[in-house]
Amino acid sequence: YKFLHIEEPFVDSSTENVYKVYCLKDRNEEIVYVGLTRQTIEARMRRHRSNKNFPHNDYTFHLVACFDKPEPAYELERMLIIQYNLVEKGWNSRNGHTVIPEQKPNKGRM
Q1: CA pair distance 62, 57, nearest whole angstrom
Q2: Is a pLDDT exceeding 70 seen at residue 101?
Q3: Which helix (H) or strand (E) holds 59?
Q4: pTM to 2 decimal places
C-alpha cells in the first residue's frame, strides 16, 4: 500500500472543530502514528510534544485529510492504523476512535 497523501484538504485545516486525520513519521520517513483531532494543528503538536511516551524530536507531523463530519475521519484513521499495523509496530495503542452516535433530542424536554 502507498501512503495516502492529499494535497488540498477537503476543509480548512486551520480551524478548530474540523476533523483532521494526521500522521507522525520518524527519522526514516516511516509512519509511526496516525491520529485524529479537532484541535488546531499547533495545539495537537504541543500535546504530542508534552507526552512523555512520544520521542520529542524524532518525528514530523503530516496532515493527511480534513473532514467536516466525524464518520469519514474515524474511518480513515482506523484504516491507516490497520494498514500500517501501528498498534503492533508503531505508537498507536488501539485501532482508532470509536464513533459515538449523536444523541437525539429528548422530545419531552424543551
Answers
A1: 14
A2: no
A3: none
A4: 0.74
Contacts made by residues 69-73, CB under 8 angstroms, sequence distance 24+: 69/19, 70/19, 70/99, 71/99, 72/19, 73/19, 73/20, 73/21, 73/36
Q: Are 56 and 92 in contact (CB under 8 A)?
A: no
Give residue-wise pLDDT tens across range 49-89: 787 777 666 788 899 998 988 999 999 999 999 999 999 99
Q: How many residues does the chain have?
A: 110
Q: Are 12 and 18 in contact (CB under 8 A)?
A: yes
CA 43 to chain centre: 13
Phi and psi, residue 69, nearest 5°: -130, 150
Name, in order, each residue with C-beta under 8 angstroms of 76's C-beta and a sequence gap of 6 or more. 4, 21, 64, 65, 67
* Whether residue 4 has pLDDT greater than 70: no
